[in-house]
Design a protein that fits this description.
Largest sheet of chain A: 8 strands, antiparallel, barrel
Number of domains of chain A: 2
Strand order of the largest sheet of chain A: 13-14-15-16-17-18-19-20
CATH superfamily of the largest domain in chain B: DD-peptidase/beta-lactamase superfamily
CATH topology of the largest domain in chain B: Beta-lactamase
Structural class of chain A: alpha+beta
Strand content of chain A: 15-25%
Number of domains of chain B: 2
CATH architecture of the largest domain in chain B: 3-Layer(aba) Sandwich
CATH topology of the largest domain in chain A: Beta-lactamase
Oligomer: heterodimer
Helix content of chain B: 25-40%
Radius of gyration of chain B: 21 Å
Radius of gyration of chain A: 21 Å
Number of strands of chain B: 20
Chain lengths: 460, 461
């Protein structure tokens, strides 16, 4: 794909999907191609330029994991050791879990700590120390190592660990150990640094008019920074970071970010997961996709972003959008490019409804939750229904009251599809002794049955 | 003044002094006029507009004092009570000062706490509470109420007190008690909120090349937020706030933010002091002549100002994004205030005089506060001056003492020091001395709003 084709594809996808602004960068055959489209902020009308910084959200987790792997390189940390060996004051709600959670479990989303996001407690209270202190009462979603559910708390703790062992603030570690050696000049991890640049802001589509409205706030709580709140970059700078990982830890400018061994280790499957459900597959910091792709997505208030690499073919792509509904643009732009370059589809096929919907529904009804969302799975007129409640408002679009129930259609092997347009498929899985499913899985998260037999894990 | 003439004057001043971007608003005859010119950020090239948020720096102190007076109105705090009554953990290094510092001293710059600025400790350490607690190790420039030197520490403590009394974070207090009731849309007090808007950034002139450079950082340490580091707004939004003070607490939209009594009290002289005063002030306002009250604001590569004159019901705000923006401010403010209040608030420095004061050795010594050092020496019968900073707060800060330069005696018993643009330029240093001891040696040097204590001077009282 040449620059002109990329520009046309991006402009078309942006208009089609009603996204205010986007920035993309591709690496194929050793050559970088990039394009931008639209505005950084619908209120100011300032355009997205190649040097505009945009939210990378949870993609920060890959950088945060890189900091820990630098500690491994330096012999200061061993992934299999318990966190408490390095942080004697480490506590979570379940005392036994606090003793057993390993460094690796913080990074491969198997620690089970249920503190996906806590309510924003205001600027001066949103420090890493305070967030870590709040985790001392966090329950477990599952016992450490038993299952895999996307875990912001684990990555915050990993950031806290780096900070302690390097003896520098986490923000400074990002600047000095990631941005500076790679020469990333269009990157900021603090809001006050972002203000030096052209910066993008998120948008939500108004449900009534479809018009994009600027978000009321820029970031998720700053105390979650290592999990990905405040980090903003240009697509090209993020691509440089991804490229460094594909080159065995060696940056395009010749700087070594990470040993070859540990760069490779980050992409390999990290586990094992002991008999419980896995919402997704992952390495260390990276999410493992289909067909040899390794990736990470990023979300935030009115933003969606992605970095995706295919180490075998040395192909990589970054797409940053400033709309809550930006994923559609990402798929439209990425799929044809990656299919053409790599020969396989980067996105897994969606499950399809079964022809025969007559299945036994008795294992499924119940309330499934983590600390931010509750799902109610019920049976109505012989069909499963699903409604959801967000426990505390995170985004302008968060529905903090029960959503109207939607019907679920069976799609095979525990998979279900909601009749709500655009809804993500979900799974009900991990039957207990009575045959009742212990977990609901959607996207990268597990939600535990409220009265399930895993509850003993919650407080220990 | 018309909107066109304002824009013309603004652009003329901006281009004359080579300032990247300027935003200004003037209120007279019941009409608010705003104009903006240049760029908000030389690196991005995005234009400065009348909606762009620009740094207001220490003008924040007037907002901070307004919040404190709201708490006085609500009976939650009394200005004459001691701070330690509201915050038993309050400490400064000097125990006597700890017990003596009143709430009012925090906002009229007479507490004497030498906490002008402390080094930036990084984002997570720069909270208002942690900064307030750091003053436990800070010395006094002067004993409480025995001098007046511009005191950031006091205003940080006033902000912390408001936060403690209300149980609401200081940033939320500003949003909920000032921005929201006044309908100030183009205003932000947190960096992450500023990112929602068009924003400006400071600029310095690079020493050797003279080229303009964007500041390397946006704000002074954020833990000093209530003294004025993070607040940014449009000039119009700042005048919306000023108009509330013109209305003695009643805003343009009918909202009442302050009782008339408290609004008037903020502009009145705040208790007389026994000792040297670098300037005159009320509560949160700096008092000028002819009932003009004002506040200036500085930061990394920025200068801003706000003027309010209640008798003529006029107000003016000029926000610039250059370290040397004061020249633009003077060009715009002087004619406006001359017309309405009868004087120019930015006079040129006093004229040199031929004969130096006798006994120049009385001035010799090292005078300092926690952020700056001024050294005075005698060479061939002339008083020499060298100044440097104790910490790097600005890209232009110099930490090494430069070679001394000759001071020129001037009218009023002060001395003039070169800052590179000549002794008649507004950036020339005007240095005075005060409070001689028994030997006739001065205990203090003062420049602008600050007192600097002679290192070997015994503490007065």
């Amino acid at each position: 794909m040449n620059r002109r084709e990329l520009q046309d594809a991006l402009d078309a996808a942006r208009v089609k999907n009603n996204v205010p602004g986007a920035s993309v960068a591709f690496l194929a055959g050793g050559k970088v191609t990039s394009a931008v489209s639209g505005v950084a902020n619908v209120t100011t009308g300032i355009e997205v330029t190649p040097d505009t910084i945009m939210h990378v959200g949870s993609i920060t987790k890959v950088m945060n994991a890189t900091l820990v792997m630098q500690l491994v390189d330096e012999g200061k940390v061993a992934l299999e050791r318990p966190v408490i060996d390095y942080l004697p004051a480490f506590r979570v709600g379940n005392a036994e879990a606090a003793r057993s959670i390993t460094v690796e479990q913080l990074l491969n989303h198997t620690s089970g700590i249920d503190a996906n996001l806590l309510p924003d407690s205001g600027h001066d209270n949103e420090t890493l120390d305070n967030t870590v202190a709040r985790f001392t009462s966090a329950p477990q979603l599952h016992l450490p190592g038993r299952a895999r559910s996307y875990c912001n708390a684990g990555t915050v703790l990993a950031g806290h660990l780096s900070r302690r062992l390097f003896g520098a603030s986490w923000y400074d570690l990002m600047k000095e150990r990631i941005f500076a050696p790679l020469g990333l000049e269009r990157a900021a991890v603090l809001p006050e640094d972002a203000l030096l640049h052209r910066a993008s802001v998120g948008h939500f589509a108004d449900p009534a008019s479809g018009k994009n409205v600027r978000t009321s706030h820029t970031f998720l709580p700053l105390g979650y920074a290592p999990a990905g709140a405040s980090n903003m970059m240009s697509a090209s700078d993020l691509l440089t970071f991804a490229r460094t990982h594909m080159s065995g830890g060696l940056a395009p400018n010749g700087a070594r970010l990470l040993s070859e061994e540990n760069a490779a280790r980050m992409c390999r499957r990290s586990g094992p997961v002991l008999g419980g459900p896995e919402a997704f597959d992952c390495g260390i910091g990276w999410v493992r996709g289909t067909n040899g792709f390794v990736q990470h997505g990023g979300g935030g208030p009115g933003i969606v972003s992605i970095v995706i690499i295919h180490p075998e073919s040395k192909t990589a792509a970054v797409v940053l959008t400033n709309a809550e509904h930006g994923l559609r643009l990402i798929v439209d732009v990425l799929r044809p490019f990656l299919k053409a370059e790599v020969g396989v589809d980067p996105f897994a096929a969606q499950p399809q409804p079964l022809a025969d919907q007559k299945i036994d529904l008795t294992p499924y009804p119940g309330l499934y939750e983590n600390n931010t969302v509750v799902f109610d799975v019920a049976i109505k007129d012989g069909t499963l229904t699903l409604s959801a409640l967000v426990k505390h408002k995170v985004y302008d679009s968060s529905l903090v009251e029960w959503s109207a129930p939607r019907f679920l259609a069976a799609a095979g092997e525990g998979w279900f599809l909601s009749d709500e347009p655009g809804a993500l498929p979900l799974r009900l899985l991990d039957p207990d002794a009575r045959g009742r499913t212990r977990y609901l899985a959607q996207s990268l998260w597990l939600f535990g049955r409220r009265d399930g037999d895993q509850r003993e894990a919650r407080s220990g | 003044m018309t909107s066109e003439s304002l824009l013309g004057a603004l652009e003329a001043a901006r281009l004359k002094h080579g300032v990247p971007g300027v935003s200004a608003a003037f209120y007279e005859g019941g009409v608010l006029r705003a104009a903006a010119g240049g760029v908000a950020n030389l690196s991005t090239g995005v234009a400065m507009s009348t909606e762009t948020l620009a740094h207001i720096g220490s003008i924040t102190k007037t907002l901070n004092a307004t919040i404190l007076m709201q708490l006085v109105d609500e009976g939650k705090v009394a200005l004459d009570r001691k701070l330690i009554e509201y915050w038993p953990d309050f400490r400064v290094e000097d125990d006597e000062a700890t017990r003596a510092i009143s709430v009012e001293m925090l906002v009229n710059h007479t507490s004497g706490i030498d906490g002008t600025l402390l080094p930036d400790l990084g984002h997570d350490e720069e909270t208002i509470e942690k900064t307030a607690r750091r003053f436990a190790h800070v010395r006094q420039v002067h004993a409480p109420a025995h001098g007046r030197s511009y005191c950031n520490a006091g205003t940080v403590l006033a902000g912390y007190l408001a936060q403690r009394i209300t149980g609401t974070g200081w940033y939320d207090l500003v949003k909920e008690r000032i921005f929201k009731p006044l309908g100030m849309e183009h205003a932000a007090v947190l960096p992450e909120d500023a990112l929602l808007h068009r924003t400006s950034v400071g600029h310095f002139r690079d020493g050797p090349t003279g080229r303009l450079k964007r500041s390397s950082h946006l704000f002074l340490p954020i833990g000093y937020a209530s003294a004025g580091s993070t607040a940014m707004m449009s000039a119009s939004a700042l005048l919306t706030f000023a108009r509330m003070h013109l209305g003695n607490g009643a805003a343009h939209n009918g909202a009442r933010l302050l009782s008339t009594e408290s609004a008037v009290r903020m502009r009145a002289p705040s208790p007389p002091i026994d000792g040297p005063a670098a300037f005159d002030c009320g509560i949160g306002w700096i008092r000028n002549k002819a009932e003009v009250v004002q506040h200036g604001g500085g930061g990394p590569g920025i200068v801003s100002c706000l003027f309010v004159h209640v008798p003529s019901q006029t107000a003016a705000a000029v926000l610039t994004n250059a370290e040397y923006g004061i020249d633009v401010i003077a060009d715009l403010i002087n004619p406006f205030m001359k017309e309405h209040a009868g004087f120019e608030p930015f006079p040129l420095p006093p004229k040199p005089v031929r004969v130096a004061p006798a006994n120049l050795e009385r001035y010799v010594g090292r005078y300092e506060n926690s952020s700056d050092v001024h050294e005075f020496s005698l060479v061939d019968g002339s008083l020499m001056w060298s100044a440097h900073s104790q910490h790097r707060f600005y890209d232009s800060s110099r930490l090494d003492a430069p070679p001394p330069t000759r001071l020129v005696p001037a009218e009023g018993g002060v001395f003039l020091g070169h800052r590179g643009h000549g002794l008649a330029a507004r950036d020339c240093a005007v240095i005075g001395f005060a409070d001689p001891d028994a030997d006739g040696k001065f205990r203090y040097a003062f420049q602008r709003l600050w007192l600097y204590r002679r290192r070997d001077a015994r503490r007065t009282r």
